[in-house]
Amino acid sequence: MSLNIGIIGFGYWGPHLARNFNLNKECAVARIADLDQKRRKEASENYPRCLVSSDSRDITEANDIDIVAIATPVFSHFDLAMSALDNGKHVWIEKPIASSSEEAMRIVEKAESKNLIVIIDHTFLFTSAVIKMKEIIDEGLLGKLHYYDSVRANLGLFQHDVNVIWDLTTHDLAVIGYLLGKEPQTVGAVGSSHFNSFIDIGYVTLHYENDFIAHFHANWLSPLKIRKSMISGDRNMLVWDENEREEKIKIYNKGVNIVSHGAPNTGFADYRVGEVHSPLIMNTEALKTEVEYFVSCLSSGVNPHNNAIAGYNVMKILEATDKSLKLNGSPVELK
User: Fold this and answer.
1) What domain range is 86 assigned to?
2) Domain match, 180 and 323 both
3) Gfo/Idh/MocA-like oxidoreductase N-terminal domain spans which residues (predicted)?
4) 129 and 107, same structural domain?
5) Domains in the chain: how many in total?
6) Rounded to whole angstroms, how far apart are CA atoms 4 and 26?
7) Is 303 within the bounds of a domain?
């Protein structure tokens, strides 16, 4: 299989996409488009064999392009994706998929009608740590899951178009959707803003069936950079610390058993404290793994797990957090 790639947007993420697509033996970056002259000059210097243009249509309508990779501001995702799909291209979209769930669903429907694949670039799903966590959960090593608790905090960077939940929690929503393979029943969110109209500290709570709960803390006003998540099960508990260089995942043989005396609420807690295990995790570049996965899906016809529907599901939850914020944290049902 030989795939020609067209990249729209050569700002921060576009060069990373170009490098990783070119590293894949099945791919070749053939065209690059960007509105900025300086970025076009950089693209031409780094990829002299590419056709570099200021017009995205030179990619979305080009006969020699198989995959259109979109790395532009969110407001442009929908129009670019629809144009690419209308012209028979598979599409790679930097997260989030679009500006609204309505636009996201239209991308889903267009891709299905054209029998094309759309992948949403939730790169965190392809880190070695998240892949290992998925294996651990699917193998049942944690047992019945109780909760997911995440903190994603740092000082800045303040955004001018989205709040802290949309900026930071998007990663975690994609991760939990991948790990669990199901969607929440209700979404609640609270937060506060201190410098502009967008909240800079936010807390999101998702309720699932069988009493599973997920909680996310997103913060632009933290003196420390924190990237830590906990997943608790009735057999073992897992801690994922992205800031750890070596032992990113630790599995704790800890838990609690309720010894009942027969009558309701009369038992006592028997706490279990055992060993701690850190599984071996290979240090591979997530974006490289994601490109390989996309190519394999195109070759085999398998629908990727980070497809347009997954992007739509994340968008639905983000929109529900906005509704809940306006309701002072009251839960919003997902439909």
Assistant:
1) 3-116
2) yes
3) 3-122
4) no
5) 2
6) 9
7) no
What average pLDDT values come out for the chain (335 residues) when binned by 10 residues? 95 97 97 97 96 98 98 95 98 95 98 97 96 98 97 91 92 96 97 94 97 97 97 97 94 85 68 91 94 97 96 97 98 93
Residues 146 and 277 placed together within one structural domain of the fold: yes
Dist CA 306 CA 175 (whole Å) = 10
* DSSP state letter for 302: P
**pLDDT (0 to 100) of residue 263:** 62
What are the strands of the beta sheet with 67-70, ordered from one edge? 51-53, 27-33, 3-8, 67-70, 90-94, 118-121
Check residue 333 and give its pLDDT: 97
**Residue 329: inside a domain:** yes
Cα–Cα separations (whole angstroms), residue 27 to 11, 109, 213, 289: 21, 27, 41, 14
Per residue in 218-269, pLDDT (tens digit) is: 999 999 999 999 999 999 999 999 999 889 999 999 988 777 766 666 667 7
Non-local (6+) Cβ contacts of 122 within 8 A are: 95, 170, 171, 174, 175, 178, 306, 310, 311, 314
Dist. CA 26–CA 24, nearest whole Å: 5
Q: Is residue 36 part of a domain?
A: yes
**Does residue 254 sit in helix, strand or coil?**
strand
- Domain boundary, last residue among 97, 116, 135: 116
pLDDT tens-digit profile of 30-57?
Answer: 999 999 999 999 999 999 999 999 999 9
Task: Decide if 136 contacts 278 (C-beta within 8 A).
Answer: no
Radius of gyration of the chain (CA): 22
- Cβ-contact 85, 118 below 8 angstroms: yes
What CATH number should be reported for the domain holding residue 51? Answer: 3.40.50.720
Same domain, 327 and 251: yes
Within a domain: 192: yes
Which of 116, 138, 171 finishes a domain?
116
